[in-house]
Amino acid sequence: MAKRTNKYKLTLEEISLAKEDDVKNDPLTLEFDNHDNIFNIINAIKSKNIFDDENQSTEFAIGLKMFTEVVLKNRDQELFKELQPAIGEFMKKLKSK
């Protein structure tokens, strides 16, 4: 039986660029899955009041969940071996806040 995951679509669009001579990119749309409900994670991070800016709470939650899901899916990759214990400790600390 296939493992069920949550499916998401994220669209990233440039609004303005710091350097006027940078080439403007077309919007990027990415479909991905995650074992967690990312909206629940966003709300949990917001409720912890870690950041003064609510947008930073959302940025942090999305970035963290996307990053850790890739690490989890590729746990056998040598690149991530050293990170795994630190990520585990970080997640425990974050959940205990």
Automatic annotation (TrEMBL):
Superkingdom classification of source: Bacteria
Pfam families associated with the record: DUF3861
Record protein name field: DUF3861 domain-containing protein
Organism: Pedobacter miscanthi
Lineage, opening ranks: Bacteria, Pseudomonadati, Bacteroidota, Sphingobacteriia, Sphingobacteriales
